[in-house]
Structures are given as C-alpha cells and as structure tokens.
Design brief:
N-(1-d-carboxylethyl)-l-norvaline Dehydrogenase, domain 2; 14 strands; globular; 477 residues; 5-stranded parallel beta sheet; 4-stranded mixed beta sheet; binds D-mannonic acid; Rossmann fold
Amino acid sequence: MRAELAQAGYDRAALRPRILHLGFGAFARAHLMVYLDSGLAVEGGDWGVVAVRLNTGAEALTALDSAAGQYHVLQADNTRLTIRKIGAVIATCHPGRDGIGALLARFADPDLSLVTLTITEKGYCVGDGRLNMDHAGIKADLETPDTPGTAIGVLVRGLAARLRAGLGGITILSCDNLPENGHLIRAAVTDFARSCDPDLAVWIEQHVTFPGSMVDRIVPAMTPEGHALISDALGAPDPNAIVCEPFRQWVIEDDFAAGTPPFAAGGAQLVQDVRPFEEMKLRMLNGAHSFLACLGALAGQDTIADCMDQPVLKRAAHGLMMGEQVPTLSSLPGVDLAGYADALIARFQNRRLNHRTTQIATDGSQKIPQRILAPITWHLRHGSDFPLLALGVAGWMLYAGGADEAGNDLPLNDPLAETLRMAARSDDPVAAFLAIRAVFPAPLAMDPIFETTLRDAYERLSKQGVIAVLSGMDARQ
Ligand code: CS2
C-alpha cells in the first residue's frame, strides 16, 4: 500500500548545529525529530540537529550520513499510513568512531543551545533522586574525567569545555520516561560536577536549565516487517526509516536557557508544570505496558497487539488503568482519564507495530518502580486494594526466571539481570526480590500488607498461570 507523503518544506541550508541529541535511536527519530521537522516547516529557522549515540549504533549513524542525514518516518495504524521525510539532522557523532574529543568539542560550539536526551532510564545513574556514586560507570568517569563513557560524564565534561570557551549556558532537556526527569538530570549533572569541579557546579546552577518533559509515541525497534512496510509505502527501501504509531504527544516545561526551538509550532505543549502529565502517562500507558509485557510474555504472547486479542488481558489492562492507576493520579483539569484509557487500548491494538512484549520487558528493574511500585505505595497509604498491580510485580519476578509458561526461553536484558535471575531461582523468590534495595525501598519491602499481597499474587500466578488467574478475577466481579 502506498502512503500519503507529508513533505516538510524548509531551507536545510539554513540549519546550524544548535541541538545535540544524545541517544539518537528509534524513539528520537520518530518523536523529537518529527516535532522539530514539523515546527521548522511552519516557522523556518536554524535549529539543526547533531545526532549522537554513545555506545552501540555507530553503524546506524554512518548509514544516516550516507543519506545526508535524511530518513523517513512511517506513521502506521490498522487503517492508514502516512510517511514524512525528516531533514533536520545535519551531522552525526559517535565517540567510538570519531573520538571523545570530537563530541566534547560540539559543546564548545557557539551555536549550541540545547542538548536533548533519550538515554533510557538506566542512563541517569541515579538512586533516590541523587547520582549513584557507586555506579561503575560514574566511578570510572570520576577517575578519568577527560574520557567520559556515561552520558552524565559527557554532559559535565561538555559543559566544562563550554565554560572554558567563555560561552553562555544552554538547556538540557530530558525526553526519557522518568518521573521528574528534569530534576533527575539536574541532580545527576550537578552531583557529578560538585565532586570534580565545584566552580563548574556553581556555573551550571546559574546558567543551565533542565526542563522536564513528558514524551509519548509508541516506536518499537525496527523489524523486517517494518522495513517491508516502508519499501512498499515508499516504492523503495530506506534503511534509516522508522515505523511508529500516528499518535504523538510532548509536554515540555517552558524553561529554555538559550532560545526555544519551534517545538510548539510542531505540536508540543509548553507548560509551567509537567509533573501531572508525566505521572498520568507513566502510570497509565507505561504501567499497562509493563504489566502486559511481563504477563503477556509469560502467557506466550509475542506482541502487545497479540495481548489485546486475548479478552482477559485486554480487560485486565483496562482494569489496571481505571481501577488501580487513575485513583493515584494528581488532578489534571480538563483531561478525560476514561477517554485516555480507551484511547490507550485502541493504540495497543495497532497491529502494524509488532511491539514485542520482550522488548518492553527490557530493563524492568529500571521501570517497575515508577510504573507499578509508586502507585502501590499510594494504595498502601490510602488503605485501598491493588490486586492487578501486585500481579504486575509478581509477573515481572516470574519473567526474570527466564521461561514462559510453556517452557520457552524469555530474554532477560537488564542492568540487574544477574541479581534478578538469582532471586527468581532462590528458594524464596519473593523474599529475595524484596531484598533488592535498588528496586524496593525498605519501607515498601517491609510493609506487611505489601508482602502478603505480593506472596499471594506470586503463588497464584506460578501455580495457575496468567490466563486462569485473570479469568478468576473477572468471574468474581
Ligand atoms: C515502553 C515505552 O518499552 C517501554 O518501556 O513502555 O517505550 C512506550 O512505548 C513509550 O513510552 C510510549 O510513549
């Protein structure tokens, strides 16, 4: 099926290296870049992007260079395809390919105004809202600050290069699914700077802003089916293209230090307080995603759309959102949460995306706290029940055991993989998991109601299986 082509018309020659994006993977290509591209088409301007990856992905950047930075984004749902050519990338940089000096020099460029981040939850290296000084990457970066390997080390050395060059402050904008992501990146960067260069820390506090943002668009890793869809829609292959859903949302705290790119003209909302939006999206969309990912994978479901074909899983995801997540949310005047939940179920039914349950289950130890444990803590404080959230936690524990209910292998990609696997295989898995402080803070782990509820959910899931447990809950309602 050929797609409608949305062509952005703006002058690429006018673009300058004003935005440095760290973590230029699928999500950034299909989210931030679409906002920027749409905004440039409306307002014009010079906001070009230097696309950076820090670890893997050097080849993907080189492939993008071969296409002069241009690639397609195919927005697809069950009935419609639209395709857009993105032109705002003007250069790429990878420390492994170009040398760390080349990356740090980008910070000392007078044109640079904004660093945007999609470095995933684990890239922040924080615990309890502060930089985790025991993190191996942070320790290494503090020992050899001139050759940083973590994103935090790169940001601090980059800002140091900027200060040395006598340049002004910039904005650092987090686009990761973390609550108060602006505060977290500010804490990580200033804690790091304080430990190696207190004057720099003071300069950062005075000249750099860290607005928070809520990002939303479902953008799975590319699959062979995705590439086939692109070739078909475009009439030719594009190895750099990305498939995503049509829906997109970006709510950004309006706190830019050195000019604001045309994100609002591209459809973003600029607000004073982004927290209620973040909380809603993290608990409803991402909470339901993690729930479906673990329980669905255990029940043998390959993708989120497959989960939606199972009536019990679909009802459970909706029940989780409306019954156990909505009551925990701060008020968001004018937002219809029932409509939001229905829209999420419809988005999850998108069959074009092939969004794998095992992909969403990746890095569960970094996701479960804000998506599932924070609302559980709310219920414990308010004396209300949380049966589905408890099943979500138990499902994540069983997932870490490494096999689905039919005995097929499940991949465990997680920075705590070894600890999780040991806990899952111990004699008392619930106790072993609750002892993992990086996931379960002591007051939660020691709450007797939490422990009893979790033990019950774990027992039932491991004995009866996902579908039987959820069907039993349906029957009782
Ligand atoms: C997903 C998110 O993989 C995951 O953890 O829950 O990437 C999700 O698709 C996006 O946050 C949607 O905005």
